[in-house]
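A quick word before the example. In earlier lectures we treated sequence and structure as two separate objects. From today on, think of them as two lines of the same record. Here is PAR14 polymerase written that way.
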Amino acid sequence: NSAEASPSVVFENIERCSPNCLQMLLENISGLTVDADFTVELIPEINVAVATFIKSIDTKEFVKKCSQHKRIREFKMTARLLESTQTIKAENLPDSISTEYLTVYFESARSGGGPVSDVQLFPEENSAIITFCDHKGNT
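And the structure line, produced from the sequence above:
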């Protein structure tokens, strides 16, 4: 199977489920142990959690199990694979930085970049969101 599934699963609408509850649920569904076999990162601002599997499992199958799981449905959560990201957030940028500089920097092969389609600067928080052109196929 050359098309490797992402090792990360995104859970949306997690606000009804406490972090501990979510971890136990994922352990129950996957039969794995949190920290040893997978990690859970919470992004409360957008009611999302990302489970990343350290142990190699069939994440597509796991997403299917989650979608059919009674408790996940009761919490009205959804699960999906995290696709290889098209946007990244750059933080702690110097005040003087320009979108042009960021574009060139992130398009540099040396920094592992690729064609950039958009750069949004947030000077008040010294950060930027860099969006890459769709590059299906190369991970």
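Notice the following. The domain at 8-81 is CATH 3.30.70 (Alpha-Beta Plaits). We will return to this example when we discuss secondary structure assignment.
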